[in-house]
Amino acid sequence: MLLNLIPTWSEYLQDVTERNILFLDVMRRRGNDMVVMTTDDKATVLNFPLEIILDGAYFAQPINYWLARILPLDGIPTDENKRPYVVQDPRAGRGPGIAGFKKESEIGAALKHGHPVYFIGFNAEPIAEQTFEEVIHGQVNFYQHVADLHPNSPKLCAIGNCAAGYLSMFSAMQKPEIFGPVLIAGSPLSYWNGEHGRNPMRYSGGFVGGSWLISLLGDLGGGKFDGTNLVMNFNILNFDNFIWGKQYDLFSKIDQEAESFLQFERWLGSFGELNTTEIRWMVEQLFVGNKLTTGQLCTSDGLHLDPRLITSPIVTFVSDGDNISPPAQSAGWIADLYSDVEEIIARGKTIIYCLNHKVGHLALFTGSKIAKRENQLFVENMDTIDLLPPGLYELILDTPEGQENNASLVARYVARTIEDVKALGCNSESDDRAFATLAKASNALQNSYDSYIHPLFKMYHNPVVATLAKNLQPLRWSYWLFAEQYNPWISGVSKLAEQVKSQRHPVDENNSFLQIQGSVAKFIADSLRDIQDKRDKAQERWFFDFWGNQLVQKYWDTFEQIPRYTPSLTKFEREKLIQNYNAEIKQKLVVNNHLEAVFRVIALLLAKRHEVQVTTASTLVKWAKSNNSELSLEELRDIISSQFMVVWEQPELALAELRQFVVLKPAAIKLVVMVKEILSLVGAVSPRMIKALYELALKLNITDLRK
After folding, report:
1. Each residue of 60-79: pLDDT tens digit?
2. Can you tell me the distance from the alpha carbon of 548 to that of 559, in angstroms, rounded to the nearest whole number?
C-alpha cells in the first residue's frame, strides 16, 4: 500500500515545487507592477484608449481630476447624437481605472451600443492644499463640458462607482438641468444604516472615538493621508480572503489564474494619497457625521448638498455579496430622505434600485460575469428608465446568469414602497442614538486634537519622517518584498519560471495528496472565517455596549435627543406639496392629441399592475420615438409621465376625458389603429391585458378595440 503511494507522492511533490516557483514569479511581477503604479502619478489600469480633453489641474481652484474621451471600439462607430455616458472612477486609496479595467464593464457596454463615453479619472497624488469642497465645485465643470459637446443629444447619463457615487450626485445637485439618469453603483450613502450581525465596517470609527485618528495619520504623512490605510481597512473586512484565500486560490490554479490575478492586483497595489483635509471632510461630514441623507450637508461657502435636488431619475445598483456597501447603506438613503412613495411621486422623482445577492462590491463595476447582465441592461434600456413615471421601483432581472448573449434580457420594473427599502436593513432609534453619540464625541475629540496635537506636527514638520511613515506601511511591504528594485535576488525566479512553464508537470486532480491539500486549505479557510465571525460579533457587541450605554449618552447629552435628523416635510409642507401635485394633475387631465390618448390608454391598461416588463416599456418608448421624431426625449418623458400620473391619481376623470377626446368616430378609429400597432409590437399579450382592453373598449364605446 505504501509502495503504491510513492509515485503519487513523487508526482505531487514535483507539482507543488513547480507551483511554488510559478507562484513566486507571479509575486515578483506583482511587486514590479506596484513599483510602476506608485511611482507614476498618471498610471492607470483603464483598459481603453483615451484622450484627456479637460484637466482639473488648470482650474481656478486646481484639482487632481481629469476628463477623458474614451475612443470608439474597432468596428463600432460612435453616434454623436446618442446619449453620452460619463463614468466616474472611485478614489478611495487606490489609483484610477478600476471602473474600466475590463472590456465587459460599464464603459464597454456603452461603447458597444455606439454611445459617446467619457471618463473622469484622477492622478494618484492630490494637488497641494486641495480640499474636498474644491473637488465638489470643480467636478461639475466636467459634466458641463460633456453637455456642451452634445447639445442635440439626450441628457447625459452619469455613472458613479463606490466613492464616486456621491461625487456624481454632488454634481447633479449643483446643475440638475444638464443631467439625465444618474446611476450609482455600490455607493454607501446612508452611512449609519446596517443590520445586526452584519456590516462590521460601520463600527470602525467607534473604536478610536471618531475622526481624530485620520488627522494623526495625515499629520504623520506631512499633510497627506496614505491610501494604504483605507485599503487595509477594506482588506481586513474579509479576513480569510486577505490572509489566505486570495493567495491559495492563485496557488491552486496557478496555470489558469495568474494573468487575471495580476490584472486585478495591478490596481490593488496602485496606492494613492489624499490630502488630510479631503479625507477629514469625508469622514466628518459623511461617514461619522452622516449628513448627506439628513439634509444637513453644506459646504463652507453655503452650497446645500441634498439628493432631493436631483431632478432626473436615480438608479442605485445594490450588492449584498460583502460588507463594503451593503443594501442598508446603498439603498437606505431612499428611506432616509422620503417618508413614503406618495412624497416621491408628488416631488416628481423616479428612483430605481437593483439588488444582486451574489455579487460583491467591486464586481458591480469591474465587469465581472456576475454583473455583466446589469451593465448590459442599464445601457440598453436607459431611455426607458429616463421615461418611467415618478415613483419607486425595483429592477428585477429574470435572465439566468450565463445566458446574457443568447437572447434579450428579461427584466421588470416592480413598484415598491419605503417599507420595502427598510426591509433591506434599517436602524432602530437606539442604534441611531449610539452612532449619534459617537458623532458628538468625535467632534469634541477632533477639536481637542486640533488645539493641542496638530500644532506640534506643524511646528516640527519633517518631510523625511513623512516619507518614512509611508514607506513603512506593512501593506506596501507585502508588495515591495517581491519587487526586483527592492529585492534583487528575486529576479532569478523569472528564469526558473520560464523553465517550469516549458516543462510543466501538473498533477492529476484525483491525486490523493492533492485532495489532502484541498482539505487542509479548506480547514484553514474555515478557521479564519470563524475568527472573522467572532471578531465581527465582538466589535458589534463592544460598539453598542459602549456607545449605546446610557451613562455615555448622558455624558455626551444624546440620551434624550432625537438621534437622527429626518429631513421629512412638516404637515403644512406636505399638504402644500400634495396640493401643488393635485393642481398639476388637474391641469393635465385634458387629452390634447393622439399621442397623449395612446399613452392614457396604455396607462389605463397597466394601472392596476404592480410591475412592467422592461421589454414592454422599451417597445412603448421606441414606438413613440419613431412616430414622433420631432419630440425631444424630455418632451416625450413629460407626456408619458403625465398620462400615468393622471391615471394613477384620478382614474375615473382620466377615463372621462379620454372618452371626450374620442367622441368622434374618426378619432376613435385612429386611436384603435395606434393601440393595435403597439400591441403587435409588444408580442404575446397576456390574457389579463386582453380582458383589460376589452373592458376599456366598452367604457369608451369603441367596439373595434375588441377585435
Report:
1. 999 999 999 999 988 899 99
2. 9
